Amino acid sequence: MIYSKSSADYAAKYDLKRCFKSGFLFPLLACGAFVLILFSTIKTNYSETEYVYKIFGSDMYSWYLLLQYIYAAFGALTGLFSFRFLTSVKMSNVYLSMGISRKQLVKNRVISSTVYMAMASIIPFIVAIILNSIYLTVESGLIKASAFYALVYFGDMLLGFAVASLFTVSVGNIIENGVCTLTALLAPTAVIYLMGYAISNLVNGAALSDYEMFYDFGGFCRTFASYTRRLNPLEYLSSTPHVGYKYLEGEAYTLSGFDYLTVIVWLLVAVGILCLVPKLIEKRKAEIAGSLGANRSAVNFTVFVYAFISFMLVSNFATVGKWLVFAVCIVVPAMVFTGITALVYRNKKEFIKSLKGTAVVAGVMAVLTITLSTGVFGYFTKIPDSEKIEYAGICPSSSEFIMASNASWRTMRESSKVYGPMTDKDDINTVLSIHQKVVDGLGKGDDSVCFVYKMKNGKYVTRFYRNVSLEGAKASLNVVNTKWYDGLLKDAFTDWDFDYDKEWEEIPEVTPGTTQYEETEIGWQCDYISYKEKFNLGEIYVYGKTLNEFVKLSEKVSPEEMKEFRTVFAQELIALTPDEIFSPKEQAMYHIRARLGEAEEYDGLSMDNIPVYKSMKKTMEFLTRHNISFDNLTAEDVVEVKLVTPESAPVSIGLRQEKSTAASYLSAEYVKDIFGGRENIWGDSGFAFSDAESITDKKLIEKYFNSYRSYYSYSGDNGAFVMFIFKDGSDLVAYVPEKEL
Amino acid sequence: MIEVKSVTKKFGDFTAVDGISFTVENSSIYGLIGYNGAGKTTLLKTASGMYCPDSGKVLLDGENAYDNNENRTGLFYIPDDMYFMSNSTVEGMAKFYNGMYESFDVKLFERILSIFCLDKKARLRSFSKGMKRQAEIAFALASRPKFMLLDEVFDGLDPQKKEICKTLFLEYMAESECSVIISSHSLSELANLCDHVGLINGKRMSLDCSVDDIPHNNKKYRLLLSQPVKKEVFESLPIKSLEIKDNAVFFTVIGEENLEKVRKTIALLPIASMDEIPMTLEEVFLSEMEDKSYDLQQIFS
Predict the structure, then answer these.
(1) Stretch A706-724: mean pLDDT, rounded?
(2) Is the Cβ–Cβ distance between B186 and B282 less than 8 Å?
(3) Cα–Cα separations (whole angstroms), residue A261 to A512, B161, B300
């Protein structure tokens, strides 16, 4: 009989051999999936153009992000498979009674799985490098990028494995194990995305959103996820520039220490969790195999995640009412916690014990709700000190309409345009006073206004307010009373020495070290130059009152006279008050439009037109002096008027909602171009005038024709949209203010 | 040698085994008897080192059994609920045990298989319960363990195979000085296999003795008294199954110590005649379990 000490080593060696024999399945699947993706990308790209094929091409980018999840999932499956003997009564009877220690069982499975997972992470990149060497070239940058990605995927797979192993040695039931592992791995993603949603619902003022905002303010108002992506082990790659792609595009990107640090930190987390596994398996009670809810900590953690998710989801009720949000945000998560725990234990005694957890959940949610719904105790509604501000910027919800009224300095219909940077002290105070009015009217409306301040200490203060009252939002229109805005108009029309190329050269370049704020500021400068280009170098077109005819001004006047026109027009635009811009008391006599290139008929109806009113006497006098007149259509030419109020317009058109925000300005054209004013473009389903009242009464037609406005803010106004249909079949959409109806 | 010392095992608030002690010498088969749920399996799992006792300890050759891989290399535990790798053949499972037990004897394994008439190429999932048991016994014996823990190992075996198994166990024990604990409900099986038996009653060990001592230490008494004796006299004694009919008294005594006490007391009684009949293991078991028996008349009346 042989009972030497070598017997234990013998069993350990055999177990390790068995682990290597049986543990390759899931790493192989992960590796196979990756290689398959690589080859499928080759097919796509290679068939298009001979040299388009790129291992790190943009086609692969989304795959690289998804592969983080795929690798973590296969890592978790490897863990569940390797340690499955612990959750089976039959298997643990055998494994735990043989001559191999629990620690050794863990060690063998960790060693074999780690080797396979490392291979699964490296092999696809070796294949990628081989493919590159065949079709393109191989340089050190590619190898470096490959090594980086391989490390990322290995880290993800190891983390999935570690988490699954941790729960396998902690809980008794395979299903519970799967649920706990899945919850733990997906919790960062769920919490990060839903926390953005909760913050955007509850914290009024935080410049965070649950979706990516575009254009100027998008640079300041990022998603919560974009800030916290590195905290998510399955998504941190998306915060790292697409290294391989940049490399092949010739845009050298050096991986920063922070990029490596993120990978290393998550690797260390995985290793740390794995270090816990041998300790926990020693403490594991074999008798829990197969039983549900054996580990209270695991149950509490998992159920808490679901309770927290429910909190974030119901935060949507914040918009319904202050007290409701408290009730819902506290009661629902507590109920979720209690309900799931009751299902897990199905035992009165254990259920009563779990009520402590319910109390903790309710307490945590109460603290969170109070903290978030008070804007972190007033932090987000505090007005910055003007003395400390270097520049201010404001983004009224109706930003695009403000500019359209006086000059479309940026492309129309883009939201989230920031007006600034305003460095003048008076301008900063104007923005601050708007800020105060916006804060005073919070929760009393449906509008939204954003602010951005660069402080003298180099920091940025950004605020994004929702549920702004109409008064607060309208106050934001006072941005046209700033020196910055006046300067903008003056530059646009009268910068005689404008040198387009020179100004572009002075724009700083966006480099890998440029911050998101700096990039946005550079974007402003680019927009400013484009705007000046449009009005200084572009052609000026003059349209008549009814927009049916136009002339190119340069064909009617000399260059000197053109300068005179630009000067007087800019002066009179600057002199317009917000009321004159947004609620004009008279009809526009002309419409001015600048564009680079030839005007087309359809463009004549665009929102880019700047109305010229009788009160703009010098402009009017100039146009009259140069005999610029049009055969405007008259009331006699109108055969029918279609009339629709915002309230009676189809819901899908959105006019009702717009009415409660300052964004309702210029709605006549808005209706026409965006919401289906033209039947033939948008079809009957979105046609704003589909259920409109038809008016053929000559007197009414004349009344409306003499009182319509081509630009008007219908916020708080009970007027109506009208579509004049002329004898020749053409039409004109406009707005008739309440007092003119 | 397996030493079970004051082992208590609890599952939450439920006590499965309460302060049980016994010793299994080398070359000894210890039969563990008890009603369903008495704690036999828990005790075996604790002895196998799977379960950590809440108090007390199990020593295998003087060393703690719990998670002691050095010691467990010579231990083979056949659970009531057998495990075979999915879709594996007899040969496949043998390879597994051959890898895990350095002392695994392939030739011995094949000999045992031929005795059981089992095909080593056959898949275990196609086996009946009894055939699986035979295969498991073959794995156990071929592993040549020093400690064998067998939980309801005869369950599902036909009488012929039971006898073969018993012979194999006895032969192996004689050769290897192995310590065996075997739990079973079939008292007749244990009677001619074990040299010691332990009876778990109410989570405690109520009997722990050599099989040879059972008839000597456990007796049935039939007394005929020459004059009536108060019932209280007998009720104060450590006896069981007391029945008094006129001057005739019937009772049983379990255990050597109890026997001594009873003998001293009844020597003082007015006895006309007395029969002291040795008890079989089965009678001892039934006597011990009498508290747990059901009154069927009451249930179905």
Answers:
(1) 83
(2) no
(3) 18, 66, 76
| pLDDT over threshold 70, residue B105 | yes
Q: In this complex, do A93 and B70 lie within 8 Å of one another by their Cβ atoms?
A: no
Q: What is the CATH number of domain B213-293?
A: 3.30.70
Residue A654 confidence (pLDDT): 61
**3-class state of residue B11 by DSSP:** strand
Give me the phi and psi of B78, to 5 degrees please.
-100, 105
Please tell me which of the candidates B69, B82, B103 has its beta carbon nearest to residue A1.
B103
Q: Which amino acid is at A427?
A: D
Residue located via tokens 């065996």: B180
- pLDDT value of residue A248: 47
Query: What strands lie across the sheet with B218-225, from one edge to the other?
Result: B240-245, B248-254, B218-225, B271-278
By Cβ distance, the residue of B49, B82, B96 closest to A97 is B49
Task: Determine contact, residues A193/A111, Cβ cutoff 8 Å.
Answer: no
**Which position has the token pair 């934001």?**
A476
B275 to chain A, any CB pair closer than 8 A? The answer is no
Per-residue confidence band for A405, with pLDDT thresholds at 50, 70 and 90? very low
Give me the residues paired with residue B5 across strands. B57
Query: What homologous superfamily is domain B2-202 in, according to CATH?
Result: P-loop containing nucleotide triphosphate hydrolases (3.40.50.300)
Could you tell me which chain A residue has the CA closest to the CA of B61? A3
More confident residue, A185 or B68: A185
The whole-angstrom distance between residue A394's C-alpha and the CA centroid of its chain comes to 19
Question: CB-based contacts of B196: which residues, under 8 Å, 6+ apart?
Answer: B22, B24, B28, B29, B30, B31, B208, B209, B210, B211
pLDDT value at A191 more than 70: yes
Using alpha carbons, select from A77, A95, A80 the residue that is nearest to residue A174.
Answer: A80
* pLDDT tens digits, A605-652: 444 678 899 999 999 999 999 999 888 888 899 999 988 887 777 666
d(CA A424, CA A410): 22
User: Which strands sit side by side in the sheet containing A550-552, from one edge to the other?
Assistant: A550-552, A539-543, A590-595, A610-612
